[in-house]
Amino acid sequence: MARLIAAVGPCRFTTHDHIAYFPYLTRAIVYQQLSTKAAATIFGRFETLCGGTVEPRVVAGLADPKLRAAGLSTQKTRYVKDLASRVASGEVVLEGLEQRGDDEIIATLTQVTGIGRWSVHMFLMFRLGRPDVLPELDLGIQKAIRKAYRLRSMPKPERVKAIGAKWSPHATIASWYLWRSLDSPNV
Q1: What is the CATH number of domain 21-126?
Q2: How far apart are CA 127 and CA 141, in angstroms?
Q3: What pLDDT, on a 0 to 100 scale, did the predictor assign at position 83?
Q4: Which are the contacts of 97, defined by CB distance < 8 A and separation ≥ 6?
Q5: pLDDT tens by residue, 150-168
Q6: 2-13+134-183 adopts what CATH topology?
Q7: In whole angstroms, what is the distance from residue 14 CA to residue 184 CA?
Q8: Active-site residue (options: 64, 102, 132, 138)
Q9: Domain extent listing, the chain
Q10: What's the pTM?
Q11: Is position 102 annotated as part of the catalytic site?
Q12: In angstroms, how far apart are the furthest CA atoms of the chain?
């Protein structure tokens, strides 16, 4: 890690704590498996469709064809509607998430179709600013560990956890450095 930190330079990790939980999670769904530019365009249309305010009852009330016309796939339409209906009904409670432990947040949010462990890890890191999150399922983290540790093959999630155990309680920052190392030709 010391070599990565020296090559990448000062940590510039930031959170998106200015975004409310529900819009952040819908944004995470929209951005899944898309380029940043395409996702930003689609999310912009989605926000416009919501009248500029992404709220559970508004999203739950939108017709699927309108969401599809904004650029959401059938699958992502189902995901954002599931999130909206679960939050609007009170089945998934977002208020006070910051006061819960990581495992409880993972259990709560993965009830929603389309939100898996990886998405919740990103929420914990980049929305809540949790300092000790290691997204073992992240392909970038796996690639960076393979490169940094000169492994012959891509490490499986269990190996990522074993290697990353020594980074606790700062696994989030270690993850940030791993991601940045993939952008740096010096590493």
Answers
A1: 1.10.340.30
A2: 19
A3: 97
A4: 21, 105, 108, 128
A5: 999 999 999 999 999 999 9
A6: Endonuclease Iii, domain 2 (1.10.1670)
A7: 19
A8: 138
A9: 2-13+134-183, 21-126
A10: 0.90
A11: no
A12: 52
